[in-house]
């Protein structure tokens, strides 16, 4: 106990806690009572800070116990401190309990014992946040990769071991193609994953707008691997989706083998694996090679056949939707060893869903390469919701490709009669034309590539010249269809031993 019981009466200074609401400044205590002084922190709005507020008075024995008066400083949760006495009259006038200041929000002092140094604390917090963000990013990338693989059927149950076992049983790539599901949409899913893991890159063979193409090997078979730029994820999506369309496989469409996403830890590679053709693109082939009429006819017919397969819908339980390429040009056509061609690069292609009568077209209707854009694409008069409009735009570009090939075709007995390679509109627009350049030439002036007079002297060139002019007609409704072009070229007789069927 911090006070003694005695039988006497003492007076305390009273202010703010006087019994019976007395206001004479004093109150009396008897045995067991004490005088007290209490200080609390009160917020002053004018000073915008806490100020001390003192209360004086008398406590009976019961009140003293309730307020935990122990004769010394006692802090309270509501920012109060109290001090008591009983040794003399008015003893509490001189009591000054310690003012309970509120804790400040300031960080612990640098190098002090009450906390970490501020710079160390800041570094620790920054490191922890960075670590958390890194973990979140890694989880996001992994989930994103799995989502992509699930979307296109590339992430299958059974894992890599099942795919490897399938490959070992069925032999090389050619055999695997034959053992596929027959859907015409590439190899079985598990084998796709296996091949992408076993690809051996040899060297780069070209770089385009969407990525870089490499010559590679898989178990002795040469394949082409297109590695997409990280900014061209949507192009990989679209091209993979088109290639995996049911009944897509055709001799004049680039053979699809597999698609996969490979993560290296720091970045992700989007791969598209297809057949490899030594001759490269038609654009490269025409740079230093001349064609004969029979060779021109074979190439033109094969391109028309591939385009007709794309444009045609195949009905049935496992039917094929109609597809528009939307980026036909000589750089997107490959030359095969047998002299035929096949269509490649489907990053801008669209499908026509006949049941729903709708197509998935990006907001930008100016699709493809500016030099090969149809007039309706250049002047924005095309109806992007019309699938027929996209097919006729393909035919316009195909007409320009026929012109490129015809320039490099020799007439007569001398190969020197073939003209040097030139791109369409080479003589009226810059090397890298803008939309405005092409609009002025194709739509405003109505310019078309010049048809050489010498072509009239050869049956093949004469027919191809008529076809190309009908393909690039300014009125889309007048243009030939791919099927019509295919049939026209099939009927053409030549003096060579090549028979178009």
Automatic annotation (TrEMBL):
Domain spans labelled Protein kinase: 199-492
GO molecular function: ATP binding; metal ion binding; transmembrane receptor protein serine/threonine kinase activity
Cofactor(s) demanded: Mn(2+); Mg(2+)
Membrane topology: Single-pass type I membrane protein
The keyword rRNA-binding is assigned to this record: no
TM annotation in the entry: 118-141
Alphabetic keyword roster: ATP-binding, Kinase, Magnesium, Membrane, Metal-binding, Nucleotide-binding, Receptor, Serine/threonine-protein kinase, Signal, Transferase, Transmembrane, Transmembrane helix
SUPFAM superfamilies found in the cross-reference section: Protein kinase-like (PK-like), Snake toxin-like
Domain GS: 168-198
SMART domains recorded: GS, S_TKc
UniProt GO BP: cellular response to growth factor stimulus; response to stress
A cellular component annotation (GO) from this entry: plasma membrane
Gene3D superfamilies with a match to the protein in the record: CD59, Phosphorylase Kinase, domain 1, Transferase(Phosphotransferase) domain 1
Coiled coil: none
Keyword Cytoplasm: no
Pfam families, sorted: Activin_recp, PK_Tyr_Ser-Thr, TGF_beta_GS
Broadest EC class assigned to this enzyme: transferase
UniProt subcellular location: Membrane
Chain sites annotated for binding ATP: 226
Signal sequence segment: none
EC number, UniProt record: 2.7.11.30
PANTHER family membership: RECEPTOR PROTEIN SERINE_THREONINE KINASE, TRANSFORMING GROWTH FACTOR-BETA RECEPTOR TYPE I AND II
Family note: Belongs to the protein kinase superfamily. TKL Ser/Thr protein kinase family. TGFB receptor subfamily.
Protein name: receptor protein serine/threonine kinase
Organismal lineage: Eukaryota, Metazoa, Ecdysozoa, Arthropoda, Hexapoda
